[in-house]
């Protein structure tokens, strides 16, 4: 009481100004952000899609699309979906058919193709540009495929590893 | 008029700022509440995911495919570019606090770049090397996936052995000459009937790099108007002839909506009879024998615009 009596009128206005200049805009921003965040979170939760959807679509691209690794007969130019060309299992081909930048928010993928025949120890591994070696994958999908290697069709297993995908 | 001091002016400015800021936030919150109550926020999220995953799925299809997506009665703006599908209520994305987006993974060289304002339908199409999204356009599903040609076709002749349906003959030494000079109107066999042997001799005398021969096709079904491209099987230049055939067929099917199908057919020239017009194949570095339309069709004159056919062929050869 004594202190307040001692303070002048101008001195009392200082905390009010501080509130107006700093707290008020802050409150506005917090209220707005909270409202937008809650609304968008609701929409994301309601429209959530299972983790397996995107890798399932993409593994189909990697196995079937002539843009990726599919074997194409040089003479007839015919593409053989389901048969991968060993020569095309490279990072460059992966980047062409999954065109993302290093800092992309899209899911990152690593692919390994391992020949499953006897006495074969061949393995190809390649990654999208946004793959982080230091982080673990959060989803894995496997498919049996065929690989054309030196004019022979051999059995192989393709594994697709996914990182991220938080949209 | 009341005179305000420095502090008074400051206070007045701050009151104005307070009013503007509060008004803006109230309007934005009202917009969000309205969008939420109408279900728009959820719908935008669902639609952006649907379209992004559809793009991914179409890019996974080995052949050509169309996908029709009905957007319902919502008046949304769809921005599909830079690896994201953004669904918003306004053209200016910045003023929609509840816009929703979802990323898709484009294929190199087929990055979509589209903005649609309140479409009722989106047609996503993958045909050959093209990926298109439109709200009305018909996508040419007869497109092939072709490579690029190694260079200009060189000295070229486009000929039509069909006397009743003549096509301009083109003799050229390269693309530049062709574009500036247009078509030559002389037709090699216009005024006299030449046997196959004589035609081949004339061609050999001309030392052509490329020959494109055009004839009318035949099919039992009257609803069919296919285009078949025959190329010589085997030989060093089969792959290059295949590329010419592929690009010409894409160009023709882009220009003529009535074409019902396209095919590239390799033939063994030595197995053909002496009177078969396809014996013309293999008499130049690259050769393609085209059969257009169907003489037994409801519309036997299709395609009737010879100059449009010739232009389509030339454009295909320049791809």
Nutshell version of this structure?
Chain A has 167 residues and is α+β, with helices and mostly antiparallel strands. Helix content of chain A is 37%, strand content 28%. Chain A has 4 helices and 6 strands; from the N terminus they run αααββαββββ.
What does this structure look like?
The complex is a heterodimer of chains A (about 170) and B (about 325). Chain A has helices at about 1-5, 10-45, 55-65, 90-95; strands spanning about 70, 80-85, 110-115, 125, 140-150, 150-165. In chain A, about 35% of the residues lie in helices and about 30% in strands. The model of chain A has no long low-confidence stretch (mean pLDDT about 80). Chain A has a six-stranded mixed beta sheet with strand order 1-2-5-6-3-4, with helices on one face. Chain A is of the alpha+beta class. Chain A is elongated, with a radius of gyration of 28 Å. By secondary structure, chain B is α+β, with helices and mostly antiparallel strands. Chain B has six helices and 13 strands. Chain B has a six-stranded mixed beta sheet with strand order 9-8-10-13-11-12, covered by helices on one side. In chain B, strands 4-3-2-5 form a four-stranded antiparallel beta sheet, covered by helices on one side. In chain B, strands 1-6-7 form a three-stranded antiparallel beta sheet, with helices on one face. Chain B is elongated, with a radius of gyration of 29 Å. The interface of A and B includes residues 75, 97 and 167 of A.
- Taken as a percent bin, the fraction of beta residues of chain A is 25-35%
The main sheet of chain B comes to: 6 strands, mixed
Mean pLDDT of chain B: 77
Largest sheet of chain A: 6 strands, mixed
- The CA-CA distance between the termini of chain B, in Å, is 76 Å
- How are the strands ordered across the major sheet of chain A? 1-2-5-6-3-4
Low-confidence stretches of chain A: none
Order of helices and strands of chain B: HHEEEEEEEEEHHEEHEEH
Strand order of the largest sheet of chain B: 9-8-10-13-11-12
Helix and strand composition category of chain B: alpha+beta
Quaternary arrangement of the chains shown? heterodimer
What proportion of the residues of chain B form beta strands (DSSP E)? 15-25%
Give the overall silhouette of chain A: elongated
